[in-house]
Amino acid sequence: MRTSFYQYSLDDLYQIFEEHDLHSSGVSRLYNWHYKKKKTGPCLKDMARKTIEFVENHFDFSLPQIIKIQTSEDKTVKLLFELEDQLSVESVIIPFNGKYSLCISSQVGCAMNCSFCHTGLQGLKRQLKTHEIIGQFMAAQRWLSANRPDDDSIQNVVFMGQGEPLHNFDAVKKSCEIMLSQHGLSLADHKITISTAGYLPGIQRWHSEGMPDVNIALSLHSPIKAKRDELIPINKTFDLGDILPLIDAIPKGKKRFVTYEYLLIKDFNDSDEDAHATGRLLQGKKAFISLIPFNPFPMARYQKPETHRIERFKSILDLYKIPTLVRVTKGDEILAACGQLNTGLKNSNSR
Ligand code: SF4
Questions:
Q1: Contact by Cβ (8 Å): 119, 339
Q2: Strand positions, DSSP E, the chain
Q3: Which amino acid residue places its CA nearest to atom 4 of ligand 1?
Q4: Mean pLDDT of 209-216
Q5: Contacts of 224 by beta carbon, 8 Å cutoff, 6+ apart
Q6: Residue 256 CB: number of other CB atoms within 10 A?
Q7: Cβ < 6 Å from ligand 1: which residues?
Q8: Mean per-residue pLDDT of the chain
Q9: pTM
């Protein structure tokens, strides 16, 4: 039975080739062919007959199928993928500075049940496998090459699509290894960000088992326990007091920060008091705050904050000398912005 080529790290492939008494040179050749040269079929050139037969009989090179494409005015693209078992996930290609960032999903649905999140409404259907995570990247890259050949480069990957990535630790870790491999997708380590709602067992595994050298972002959304409990129910189990020291202790390069995401919600967590509490919590840390105005979606219980409140909130954080950026919302008219992804509800504004 054939298995997906895209589930294997370089080390996995070396081991498989060794076990089958195949020449190791075929490993980097295969990796280069698929990830660097972006070829679709198996590389059969300059390979021994035995290796060719093995590759043909053991590896499957198919990708998740794109079944729906939505594009917004700002060139954001939302891709809906159908998986082998007919479940679906979404990825979002986001333009920035002439390049692209890919917001990738790590689970079908999500178990964390955050009250502001469209994905949370779905519940967890299942974990994505490594090849389904890498498959989103490969399929998005191919879509760009075919449709926007002049600027088709994905430079950043953010695990901020559907799912809590640290709840699917093994597949996310291996995906990062493949993305960072110089023979593989060859992304720079500071170009991959894993965003967590604060899933403590996953953060503990980051320390005990290691994670490739990628960035971490924490969905903070409020430093006030009662409010964070409402927004992120796992906060009742995994306290911020236990999470923050572990996040601080993740090794970071000189100019690298932990990103703290703060979803600003009208009349809920956008007051002066909320801003000061956030400033006090993060003052002195290697912190960067990403302020995200809430993006409404069908049945959402919260509202977008007013512009003057966003500006006021940022100006208070500036007093604490914490670098803060208000994230520009992209793709909200196709429900591709932060917290809006949901494959349980299939809207129909495709273009
Ligand atoms: S915000 Fe993230 S962790 Fe929370 S329910 Fe949505 S996808 Fe899951």
A1: yes
A2: 3-4, 59-60, 65-71, 77-82, 88-96, 99-103, 107-109, 124-127, 154-159, 192-196, 215-219, 258-264, 287-293, 324-326
A3: 114
A4: 94
A5: 269, 274, 277
A6: 17
A7: 110, 112-114, 117, 119-120, 162-164, 197, 339
A8: 89
A9: 0.92
